[in-house]
Amino acid sequence: MSKKQYHPLLQSFGVLLVLDADSRCIQAASTNLTHLIGVERPENGQLSLACVLGKRLSQRVRRELRGHQRLPSPLTFMRSKHSNVRFQLHAYRVDEQVVVEIEPLKALGKRRLLGTVNERLMHLAEATHQEELLDYLVNAIQQLTGHDRVTVCHFDSDWHGLMVAEAPGKELPSLLGQRFPASDFPAPLRQSYENYPMRLVEDVNAPPETLAPPCPTANLSGSFLRAPAPERQRYLKRLGARGALSLAMQGDSGLWGLVFCHSATPHSVEPPVRDAVRTLVQMATQRMLLLRARQEARYLQRVQDSLVLSAGARSEPQNPQQLLHEQAATWMKLFRAHGVVLWLNGGAYQAGVTPTPEAISQFVLRLERAHVHSGPWCTRELAKDPLTCSLAMPEQCGALAVPLLMNSTQRAWLLFFRPEQVETLYWAMQPATEQQPTAIAVPSVAWHEEVMGKSEAWQWVERLAAVDLGEDLTLAISAYEISSLNMHLERERKALAEANQRLEQLAHFDPLTKVWNRYRIEEAINAELVAAKRYAAAFALLLFDVDNFKQINDTHGHSVGDDVLVALARLVESSLRGCDHLGRWGGEEFIVLATHSDINAALGLAERLRSLVAELHIEGLKQTVTVSIGVAVWQPGDSCKTIISRADDAMYRAKHGGRNRVEMALEPEVPI
Length: 672
What we know:
Blueprint: E1 15-19, E2 26-30, H1 33-37, H2 49-53, H3 55-65, E3 75-78, E4 86-94, E5 97-105, H4 110-126, H5 130-145, E6 149-155, E7 161-167, E8 179-180, H6 187-195, E9 198-201, E10 211-212, H7 230-238, E11 243-251, E12 254-263, H8 271-305, H9 311-315, H10 320-334, E13 339-344, E14 347-352, H11 357-370, E15 377-379, E16 398-405, E17 411-418, E18 423-427, E19 447-451, H12 460-508, H13 518-535, E20 539-546, H14 549-556, H15 558-575, E21 581-586, E22 589-595, H16 599-614, E23 627-633, H17 640-656, E24 662-664
Parallel strand pairs: 23-24
Antiparallel strand pairs: 1-2, 1-5, 2-10, 3-4, 4-5, 6-7, 6-12, 7-8, 9-11, 11-12, 13-14, 13-17, 15-16, 16-17, 18-19, 20-22, 20-23, 21-22
Helix pairs in contact: 4-8, 5-8, 8-12, 14-15
């Protein structure tokens, strides 16, 4: 048994020819060839393209198709000198064949049509928002084509169609605001519209034409003349339409929607009008995409304006809780949320209507396990999403979660929550059954459903803006943490400096009198000895102690004795030159290092200090405070030990000589 042959069905408003690869011989022609063009089919022999178009035009078709897939533009011609009917011709290659489509043309007044189209294009270019743009588009198309109803159908993310604009007529019911299920627009049909963006059905009830002779090898999937498939015919009848023109609206990432032009009666649309309508749709689509891009840019700018890492935030970083407190209301308004949470370092900063801290903690824990990439996570059905369905979040329905990469191992989270949005959807048709085929519903009684348990959908631009906000928030938190660390380090630095200062005090200063201690004064004496040996710069030591100091301690107590030592040190230190130094040698003994001093200067200083001390008054002490001073001037060969020893001997001589005296050290013995 032979296989069933394929017979493509064609509409009768045009003639279709299938040619060989060289565009000479006609392999098959639609059955309306004679009726529409007046060309008789030869009883014997093959029909050539020259027989239909004439020799000159057929040669032009072959010449312009050579090396190309299609003619650069349609060609027009008249069949004979005695006919005033003009025809338009399209030709293109499919596989190893050439397909030619021919349609009769009616006089439209080309100049008037061009002016009308230009005027419509100007109006479209001036539209400032999508609703205005689409309303003007459907009305302009209706005026050009004369269809009873022109609608714009926009596809949502699930490929359901929503009628968003309409130019209605009296013959067909309105579809505005109604939805068509995704099953009405299967993937092959959508793909077909992307490849062939315009379709015309003059009369859905008209008997179709076929190819004669049958041509099983002909691929007519892209032919403008192909008849609608039986299921599409039934669909148009359900809509009450006999004539239909549909055009695709291509978005940035695929099919945005379709323009449907329906007529209750058979309706033809001339090729120039179709071209004009296609130009209007393309212009409107581009304008709409531009308006949407501008709207998204304005939204992103509003989010940018709300970002926390401003110049002030950089100079004075805020802690995360303060940031959330100041920005939460703005963020919730921008993202249409009723709650926002910043999860950081195992804790939650919350604003608005949010889940409990326990639920947030569990939510973040699951996000950390399941959502490992850096993009946002979102749902509009928390109660049904596998990640969140078991969490107790009764007042939240939708969530958007943005990970904040704080470092290579730690992530914070910015969480937005939305409430339930009960939505009523009106469908143009109820689901069909085998027993009861459906027809279009009257708008007032259109089938409707209430969608519950969902929040508003998270738009692409919202997710993008949330990522931008998250990146900026990460920088702001990092800036605060760095600032806090710097403040901590500064406090540590100051504490270390103070500790070093205290250590230096302990190492170099006497804790009671605050003058140099024995270790520090010895250092100074040794340094002065080096200078004296190198430059012969004389200096002197004045070693003195308080006379009868033990008696003062025993009689008046050690606190009075300490007061004597402190007062004495302050008096002496304030009486010295800037280049002289005072140190406590031990107990009640002190040393004055007098630099650049000879014997006379040293004795003069010692007498002056002795006199000053004798005038010192100590509270609680009635007796006079006096000191005995021994003076030694550097001599070549002196060491720290020898010069101090000589000064010590002189001081003891002063004591044994009656106290409150100054004695000069003896010259050192010169070895024989």
